[in-house]
Amino acid sequence: MSDERKNAWFDHLALTAVLLAVFAAVSAYERDDLSTRVVLAQAQTANGWAYYQSKSLKGYLYELQKERLEFELALRSARASPEAHALYMAKIRYSDERIREFDADKAALLAQARQRDAQRVELQHRGRSFGVASVFLQVAILLCAVSALLRRRAFWLAGSALGAAGFLFFLNGYLSIF
């Protein structure tokens, strides 16, 4: 190999290593950022499910109260005064309204919890892509370094191929291609 051609090959090798290092650094940063966001999303999802459960329990308590009032009214209806009957009916209607409110709240909370969980899954998927990209890119940098030390173009080509695979995973982290 002539010196000029050898220097051109080393220039390409150096440029490849620099590009791989830049993408590896950005990929590691994105992976770490997404990891933090996944933890936050998981906490928000857990809070949403806990709030949903508390609404479910409160709604169930109103259902029990309504059933108890209806039972008492049925037992006492023959001897209950019109005022007592009206009071029972008002409390039963109030319980019905609260049950409907809690059911509507639960439906909205369920939709929100499912949406947050879907976001968490998407963040995890993107984070995994950046993690895989980091591994491919770091191994590619290693192969480029070995290529420079041993002055073997085959290692540079192998590193470039792994770098291309890493770049695909890098892009997938942003675009969710696969």
Describe what you observe in this structure.
This protein is mainly alpha-helical. It has one domain: Orthogonal Bundle (Helix Hairpins), CATH 1.10.287. The chain has three helices and no strands. α1 (3-76) runs antiparallel to α2. The longest helix is centred in the first third of the chain and has 74 residues, at 3-76. The model has no long low-confidence stretch (mean pLDDT 93).
Write the layout of secondary structure elements.
Elements: H1 3-76, H2 82-150, H3 153-175
Helix pairs in contact: 1-2, 1-3, 2-3
Q: Tell me the β content.
A: under 5%
Query: H/E element string?
Result: HHH
Instruction: Report how far apart the termini are.
Output: 41 Å
- The top-level CATH class is Mainly Alpha
Q: What proportion of the residues is helical, as a percent range? A: over 70%
Number of helices: 3
Instruction: Give the low-pLDDT segments.
Output: none
Please name the CATH topology. Answer: Helix Hairpins
Short description:
With 178 residues, the protein is mainly alpha-helical. Helix content is 93%, strand content 0%. The protein has a single domain, classed as Helix Hairpins (Orthogonal Bundle).
Fill in the keyword field for this structure:
178 residues, mainly alpha, Helix Hairpins, 3 helices, rod-shaped
